[in-house]
Design goal:
6-stranded parallel sheet; about 190 residues; 7 helices
Amino acid sequence: MATLVYVHGFLSSPLSHKAQITQRWLPEHAPHIDYRCLHLSPYPEETQAQLRQLMASLQGEAVGFVGSSLGGFWSTWLVEHYGHKAVLINPSVRPHELVDRVAGEIQHNYYTDESYEMTPAHGEQFRRAYPAQLKSADSYWLMVQTGDETLDYRLAVERYKGCQQLVEQGGDHAFQGYEEKLPAIIQFLFD
């Protein structure tokens, strides 16, 4: 059995546009691949516990990760701890820096109507989770669009230097044209 794990971003959910596109696309175009997308906590230690539990349930399976935004950070963490491959869509490279900027502010998730407060302790948890070295450049495919209004795409290009990269001019943080990339994403993750 093969499983694609979609890892959503901060203040997102399994109801996000790309997660829904992926979930709908797989049964028609790659029915042999199971789909998983957890509703992840915004808090790093809780997220790590959720992902560890998920990976325990997938032991022995072929697994591929698609991580968007903060999900790109967590997909990198997963690859570095469990192996497999990941496609990173406009990934967050250093989320601890974002937490440092928004600490104390209430963050609202429009998908779930939940509110969160990030603290300096959460920033420190992200720092501890940050994989300083990537074990294998072949395990990653970075996809960024230069029009990303949320994250600086150049940080990701630098972080994943030596990895397969697709840098598209324009676009935005949502990554325009994502669905068109799914056949190539599946090939990268599972061939």
